[in-house]
Amino acid sequence: MSSPDGTEPLIEVKDMTKVYGEGPASVQALKGVSLTIRRGEFLAIMGPSGSGKSTFMHLLGCLDHPSSGSYRLAGQEVSGLTRDQLAMVRGRQIGFVFQSFNLLSRTSARENVELPMLYAGVAREARDARARSILEQVGLAERMDHKPNELSGGQQQRVAIARALANEAPLLMADEPTGNLDSASSVEIMTLFQHLNRENGITVVVVTHANEIAAWSGRIVTFRDGLIVDDRPAKEGSAA
Ligand code: ADP
Ligand code: MG
Asked: Which of 19, 28, 56, 119 has the fewest CB within 10 Å, making it most exposed?
């Protein structure tokens, strides 16, 4: 289904709920969320702690099933898929970036970036060439044979972004990607996301509770108590 402006939605969520646990101790983390994200958007998800941001990201990222509701990703209904099917969709469609980088500590930047390609069955030479090219793209040409503990936080996050790009997924999802970074590194990382969004057409969804981070996006969606309470364009040029 295409939207009135002709841009195909990448994500269509309707009435999504998520309940953790059962009985009196259960928590309704999402209470009925609907959201459409078009290809090429750069979205920030905001809201106080406990409002459901990470839960929503997990569901968008096909890491977990919703309790009810529908989720179409790139035209495919994914809410009813098995664990294995979800893993396949994830591998093709989604790159993840985490607050704590989640790199393998004993392997070089290049090997970290190669890993998703190894899982996807890409041949060694193609893996090597692509890892080098992406690491150059994120500005780490000189550092690709270093291990994570030999890199700054900002550099480690750039390795993580390179890894997220390894399988050419159209969607990049990041949960508090600058939460462990100083402000100069945060600007570098947000500049990189903006570049990937504008120049490579990658759809970017970033969870943050910092206004100065959200200001890099094009659209800010705010959660509260498991519901979307606000959805508006980010102010033009507010990050610059
Ligand atoms: P946010 O990322 O906005 O801080 P979360 O999505 O992590 O919010 O949490 C939303 C609600 O769901 C909170 O009440 C939280 O305690 C609860 N919650 C999150 N994950 C789990 C889980 N795995 N088991 C039980 N409750 C959870
Ligand atoms: Mg969270």
From this structure: 119
Measured between alpha carbons, how far is 84 from 32 in angstroms, rounded to an integer? 26
**All domains in the chain, ordered by first residue:** 9-233 (3.40.50.300)
DSSP character at residue 82: -
Block residue for tokens 């094009």: 218
Indicate if ligand 1 lies below 6 Å from the C-beta of 105: no
Residue 40 Cβ contacting ligand 1 at under 6 Å = no
CB atoms inside a 10 Å sphere around CB 236: 8
The Cα–Cα gap between 129 and 135 comes to 10
Burial of 42 (0-12, 13-18, 19+ CB in 10 A): buried
Which protein residue's CA is at the shortest distance from atom 7 of ligand 1? 54
pLDDT tens digits for range 130-158 = 999 999 999 999 999 999 999 999 999 99
At residue 238, the pLDDT reads 52
